[in-house]
Design a protein that fits this description.
The structure holds 2 protein chains of 2 kinds.
Chain A lengths: L2 H8 L2 E3 L4 E5 L6 H4 L5 E7 L3 E3 L4 E6 L5 E6 L4 E5 L12 E3 L6 E2 L4 E5 L1 H6 L6 E5 L7 E4 L4 E2 L4 E6 L1
Antiparallel strand pairs in A: 1-14, 2-3, 2-13, 3-11, 4-10, 5-6, 5-9, 6-7, 7-11, 8-10, 12-14
Chain B lengths: L1 E6 L8 H12 L4 E6 L2 E4 L3 H6 L7 E7 L3 H15 L1
Antiparallel strand pairs in B: 1-4, 2-3, 2-4
Helix pairs in contact in B: 1-3
Classes of the chains: A mainly beta, B alpha+beta.
């Protein structure tokens, strides 16, 4: 019985979808995220170039431009992962979509590949907010910030 | 029951920022607010639903309001949409 099995069963843990430094969402230089307009969450400064499913669930929407994806976990967590800021204007350049809207996914399953250096070279900030869109359903959405995570490490703890 | 329509003029369509602002604007009202695009209907007060419409530039959005403050809500959302999207 490994740690992943234990985490799967708790149902209210969101795992890190990529490697990087965890920062509070209030530090994201975009009010859509820092002011929690879409919900509570956390942000990661990416150190890897692949976004993987943060839990077992369904891809609710893979954005056509591949710069963002929303998912619903089997326990009902609605999560938006938005790679970089303003990256919608890249119109899909530097993103490779590996999963589609409606797909059932397992934690750790690759969803999107992105070219970190190329995107940064075009002047975009790669900070990646992760937002619980149904934050209102939970009493607490907590992240331990100021540390580095690897894909699959526990990132967010939710409680009702 | 009130209904308004808006054709998306924003190059980037209904992306994260306007989706969040739309939901915030809709959440201020008690009436039920539904948004429809391309034959799909969602609750305009839920972020995930609004983003799932994946509405692009040129898409016609139809919003339906049902409840005590429907007139106020329709006006507010019409103003918001013409300014933001």
């Amino acid at each position: 019985m490994g740690i992943f099995d234990k985490l799967r069963r708790s149902g209210l843990t969101v795992l890190a979808p990529l490697d990087g430094e965890v920062v509070p969402i209030s530090q994201v230089p975009d009010p859509t995220f820092s002011e929690e307009l879409l919900g509570k969450g956390v942000a990661i400064k990416p150190a890897s170039s692949r976004v993987c499913a943060p839990f077992d669930g369904t891809v609710s929407m893979m954005f056509a431009t591949g710069h963002a994806v929303s998912l619903v976990s089997s326990s009902g967590i609605e999560l938006l992962i938005h790679i970089g800021l303003e990256t919608v204007s890249l119109k899909g350049r530097h993103f490779t979509i590996l999963a589609n809207s409606g797909d059932q996914v397992r934690a750790g399953q690759p969803l999107i590949l992105f070219e970190r250096e190329a995107i940064a070279a075009e002047g975009f900030n790669l900070i990646t907010p992760l937002v619980v869109c149904n934050s209102g359903d939970y009493a607490q959405v907590e992240a331990k910030t100021g540390r580095t995570v690897h894909t699959g490490d526990p990132l967010l703890e939710l409680s009702r | 029951m009130k209904q308004i329509q808006h054709r998306i003029a924003d190059e980037q369509g209904l992306h994260a920022r306007p989706a969040g602002q739309l939901v915030q604007a809709a959440a201020k009202f008690t009436c039920d607010i539904r948004m429809e695009a391309g034959g799909r209907q969602v609750d305009a007060k839920r972020v995930l639903g609004v983003m799932q419409l994946g509405a692009a530039k040129g898409t016609l959005l139809t919003l339906t309001f049902d409840g005590p403050d429907e007139a106020e809500a329709a006006e507010a959302l019409q103003t918001f949409l013409s300014q933001a999207l």
